[in-house]
Amino acid sequence: MNAYPVDLSPLYHRCIFRSASRVDFHEETARELAEHRLRWREGDADTVLHKAHLRAIGVYVLRYGAEIEVTPRASNDFVVIHWSLRGLVEMVCDGQRAVLLPGQTSWISPRRSWNMRWQAGSEQLILKIPKSLLRASRRSGGNDGLPNFGLLPARFETQWQSLVQTLLAAVAGPTQTDGYEEWIVQLERLIVDFLLMGVGIVSSGRDLAESQAPSTHEPRCQRHPIERLENVIADRLGAPWSLNDLADAAGVSPRVLQMTCLRERNISPTDLLRNMRLDAAHRRLQASSFVSVTETALEFGFGHLGRFSTYYRERFGELPSETCTRHNSKVAPRLLK
Questions:
Q1: 295 within 8 A of 126, measured Cβ to Cβ
Q2: Burial zone of 138 (CB within 10 Å; 0-12 exposed, 13-18 middle, 19+ buried)
Q3: Confidence tier at 144 by pLDDT (50, 70, 90)
Q4: DSSP assignment of 43-83
Q5: How far is it, in rounded angstroms, from Cα 173 to Cα 167?
Q6: Is the separation of the CB atoms in 87 and 122 below 8 Å?
């Protein structure tokens, strides 16, 4: 089953390089994307590069496998769009810093310097767009059209996914039909205009700081991993979950899950799991007069009754047995009537 909100198979069918050699892959990515310095950190190289090309825009899916630090050469020739498919990428561009989480999209158009640190296992969809396309857009006013760095506002996420899916369908062909070249030209213009509209450069000139400012409405792409995790946990409360299992259910790496869970729920993923189990146990003990505390603890994943009682009292201010006693004291008078 496809784990991403778009079907990436047209690109996955176009693998141009795969290797466990750090040196060979560095040379290949430099040739395709940009000259860069690359520092390999923790983990084994598991590198793969997929590529398709429209008329002027290059489309890539890139994975290093290991944790890496990459410093590309700044260029006035193109803008790079990163859509994070998996893992966390820390970016610094001309002194501005952002952390790209799965589902988020950034544009990078450095004037001076550009540095990225990819978490192990990260995978990125990358668009390499010539600045000549930006200058040709009426929205850009004849200049490059984009600030040097920023995140695409979350409210454009759904439209962006639809646009990427259209782009991938164009990659899949057929490429020899009448009107195909004209359609590709229009599609590339649409991509550029969408990005210019998304960053609001024409109407408001917002910069990176504003795009990352706190909002009363959290971006859906940031809520999504936790919501997905909570839904999966709710269906399997008694399962023997590990941190890696929780991360897989959320569709992110363990490190990203830790950061996202702390930001959105102010607790760790394991605390989130335990609280959901405790809440379910509490509902069960409140609802039935014939339930066993021990059986309830085991059903919801607590193998140690003493720890279950301690956690339960910390969360609800009473022992599980006291919940049962209080419930039965309320039920008994009704039964005697």
A1: no
A2: exposed
A3: low
A4: S---EEEEEEE-SS-EEEEEE-SS-EEEEEPP-SSEEEEEE
A5: 10
A6: yes
3-state DSSP call for residue 18? Answer: strand
**Model pTM above 0.70:** no
54 within a domain of the structure (yes/no):
yes
What is the domain extent for residue 316?
220-336
Q: Give bridge partners of residue 151 from the DSSP assignment.
A: 106
List, in sequence order, every residue forming a beta bridge with 19; answer none if it has no partner: 47
pLDDT confidence of residue 329: 63
- Give how many domains the chain has, as a whole number: 2
Strands 105-108 and 36-40, sheet pairing: unpaired
Going from the C-alpha of 262 to that of each of 197, 217, 224, 259, the distances in angstroms are 32, 17, 14, 5
Q: What is the DSSP letter of 266?
A: S
Q: Exposed, middle or buried by CB within 10 Å (0-12, 13-18, 19+), for 288?
A: middle
Helix (H, G, I), strand (E, B) or coil at 92: strand
Please give the C-alpha separations between residue 276 and each of 18, 231, 279, 281, 295, in angstroms, as whole numbers.
42, 11, 5, 9, 17
Please name the residue that has the structure tokens 């919940």: 323
pLDDT in tens, 222-236: 447 888 889 889 888
In angstroms, the first-to-last Cα distance of the chain is 56
**Residue 266 sits in the same domain as residue 293:** yes
Q: Are residues 271 and 172 in the same domain?
A: no
Query: Which position has the token pair 């990459």?
Result: 70
Where helices occur in the chain by DSSP H, the ranges are 9-12, 22-32, 131-136, 157-172, 180-199, 208-211, 220-235, 243-250, 254-265, 269-287, 293-299, 305-316, 320-336
Q: What is the C-alpha separation between 246 and 261, in angstroms, rounded? A: 11
Largest CA distance in the chain: 84
Tokens at 22, concatenated: 């750090």
Tokens 């309830």, residue located:
296
